[in-house]
Amino acid sequence: MLQTSRLCASYRAIQAVRDVSIEVPDGSLVAVLGANGAGKSTLVRSIAGVHRQKTGTVLLDGTPIQSMPLHKITRLGVALVPEGRHVVAPLTVAENLALSSYAGRSDQALEDRVYDLFPRLAERRDQAAGLMSGGEQQMLAMGRALMTRPRVLLLDEPSMGLAPSIISVIYEAIAALHAEGQSILLIEQDATRALAVADHAYLLQRGEVRMAGTPAELAQSDDIKKAYLG
Ligand SMILES: Nc1ncnc2c1ncn2[C@@H]1O[C@H](COP(=O)(O)OP(=O)(O)OP(=O)(O)O)[C@@H](O)[C@H]1O
Ligand SMILES: [Mg+2]
């Protein structure tokens, strides 16, 4: 009995229902692959409440959140790192992190955790965010999302436009967060990178889930091999 209730309590499901229906179990890393225009950003933006859908449901631990105001969705633990990494350009790294912490209150322990995850940000602590490289801005955008103590972290194409060495740093951080039990929904066009770290994956095509399964299952599919694995 105890076993059963524990299992239920620890299970977190996100569903975005339109044509698309996906689930992120608690503590898992779920990847969503898809070509340009497949509807990947629309999916995470809908979950985060940035994009409002006329129909559909987003459930966080069984609670519908799709009609809630944005700040409430954030407070409940949904954090989006958007495509194109939004940071506050004139503010320093430290100021960007402080701004994102709960109610703008400083949270040194959490800030230190971000610096542990991305030592490069610690070195750039007093640097204006707008003057940093794309990779550093991606790290900072992830750091800002982590400052909200998210239950689910939504990452929209974190590798986009970055050099392979920087992508590796970003993916090491993603794997470290996953190992700590952070639930992550990872949007990617780079199937090789995403399938290497995911527990479960979806392929989106024209706004629909074309395929779902384990990374091994998706990697074996001809569709994915042809379009994404080269
Ligand atoms: N489920 C859907 N049904 C119908 N249209 C959709 C759906 N999802 C997205 N679209 C539309 O498809 C277009 C592309 O969507 P979106 O920007 O989400 O794609 P993307 O996969 O993030 O693309 P990119 O790789 O370029 O970032 C948008 O105009 C959007 O409104
Ligand atoms: Mg997109």
TrEMBL record:
Family: Belongs to the ABC transporter superfamily.
A Pfam family per the record: ABC_tran
GO molecular function: ATP binding; ATP hydrolysis activity; branched-chain amino acid transmembrane transporter activity
BP GO terms, sorted: L-amino acid transport
Entry annotated with the keyword Nucleotide-binding: yes
Coiled coil ranges: none
Name of the molecule in the record: Branched-chain amino acid transport system ATP-binding protein
Domain ABC transporter as annotated: residue spans: 2-229
CDD domains: ABC_TM1139_LivF_branched
Source taxon at top rank: Bacteria
Keywords: Amino-acid transport, ATP-binding, Nucleotide-binding, Transport
